[in-house]
Specification:
about 130 residues; alpha/beta; 5-stranded parallel β-sheet; about 45% helix; globular
């Protein structure tokens, strides 16, 4: 695991209960030069957030235990400097999250390409 002082490397927490999506995003972001930690659900993500500082949380909306919206609400309150992106394959869930645009920078529609997810994360990290 990389140290937070590693030459400006951005640290991203990817939370998704689908192994294939989580692994795909982790590989894409590692390849793009980000330090990536993953979590399989919102509860596990909260544990990771307590263990280290992240620049960005990328979370699925629909997950067991603690869904992405509940996770984003808690993360935004406890870690106000961290950027939040959400992803979902469900139109009604994307609409739910769009109502929370004060805490999530964007809701990314699944499926997405490697290039698209990397570009959106870079754009979000560069925004102030």
């Amino acid at each position: 695991m990389m140290d937070s002082e590693d030459l400006g490397v951005k640290h991203i927490l990817v939370t998704d209960d689908e192994d294939s999506v989580r692994d795909f995003v982790e590989r894409a972001l590692n390849y793009a030069g980000y330090a990536v930690i993953t979590a399989t659900n919102g509860a596990e993500a909260l544990e990771r957030l307590q263990e280290q500082k992240f620049d960005l949380l990328l979370t699925d909306i629909v997950m067991p235990e603690l869904d992405g919206i509940a996770l984003a609400l808690k993360a935004a309150k406890d870690y106000p400097d961290m950027k939040i992106l959400m992803m979902s394959g469900y139109a009604n869930q994307r609409q739910r999250a769009h109502n929370l645009d004060v805490l999530a920078h964007e809701v990314i529609s699944k499926p997405f390409s490697l290039e698209e997810i990397t570009r959106k994360i870079q754009k979000t990290l560069e925004s102030e």
